[in-house]
Design a protein that fits this description.
heterodimer; A: mainly beta; seven-stranded mixed beta sheet; four-stranded antiparallel beta sheet; 53% strand; B: mainly beta; six-stranded mixed beta sheet; 11 strands
Chain lengths: 113, 113
């Protein structure tokens, strides 16, 4: 059974650019959530999608957005990148209806220069 | 304010020794508590999930305890191995549905030969 797949694994972008990260959940999982992890702030919740609808949202600016497709795959977009956006972005999937637990992907390491 | 604190911040032990990591939380209402292991540059991997009524749960050499009255949890690692070197993150959920997680800052464990 394939796990949660995130692409790309590494990304280097210039300040002011935008970036799109992709997450393919475990087959059958309908919930996909996104997190930002930095050494200073630890893990922080960005947003969660369930059946193509954003179900929860963390406290991040509007530059951070996401969407989920009918096959449950999800994308996260960050516009007008700032140096402080450099982080490990993690995606997690779950069946979605009851809090069974979330399986994380390996993450995308974004570096903004 | 919902918070999760972990101690110690970092820990160094010799291979074969046991250790205990602590997690204190003030999250309310309480749904469940999880311990995750995160290797450097990788996504977190779930070790245990404990609900209100569970006091102890084991996963191989990992044993988690929960005292819902004092709002404390511990993760005990027995006969440590070099591969146990990682960050251990305590996560408390405040609901059964959707995302309402509070993450601890993690404990960085280093196991030396």
């Amino acid at each position: 059974k394939a796990g949660v797949t995130q692409t790309p694994r590494y990304l280097i972008k210039t300040r002011g650019q935008q970036v799109t990260l992709s997450c393919s959940p475990i087959s059958g999982h309908r919930s996909v959530s996104w997190y930002q992890q930095t050494p200073g702030q630890g893990l922080q919740f960005l947003f969660e999608y369930f059946s193509e609808t954003q179900r929860n949202k963390g406290n991040f600016p509007g530059r951070f957005s996401g969407r989920q497709f009918s096959n449950s795959r999800s994308e996260m977009n960050v516009s007008t990148l700032e140096l402080g956006d450099s982080a490990l972005y993690l995606c997690a999937s779950s069946p979605g209806q009851v809090d069974y637990g979330y399986t994380f992907g390996s993450g995308t390491r974004l570096t903004v220069v | 304010k919902n918070q999760v604190e972990q101690s110690p911040q970092s820990l160094i032990i010799l291979e074969g020794k046991n250790c205990t990591l602590q997690c204190n939380y003030t999250v309310s209402p309480f749904s469940n508590l999880r311990w995750y292991k995160q290797d450097t540059g990788r996504g977190p991997v779930s070790l245990t999930i404990m609900t209100f009524s569970e006091n102890t749960k084991s996963n191989g050499r990992y044993t988690a305890t929960l005292d819902a009255d004092t709002k404390q949890s511990s993760l005990h690692i027995t006969a440590s191995q070099l591969s146990d070197s990682a960050s251990y993150i305590c996560v408390v959920s405040a609901s059964n549905y959707g995302q309402n997680f509070v993450f601890g800052p993690g404990t960085r464990l280093s196991v030396l030969p």
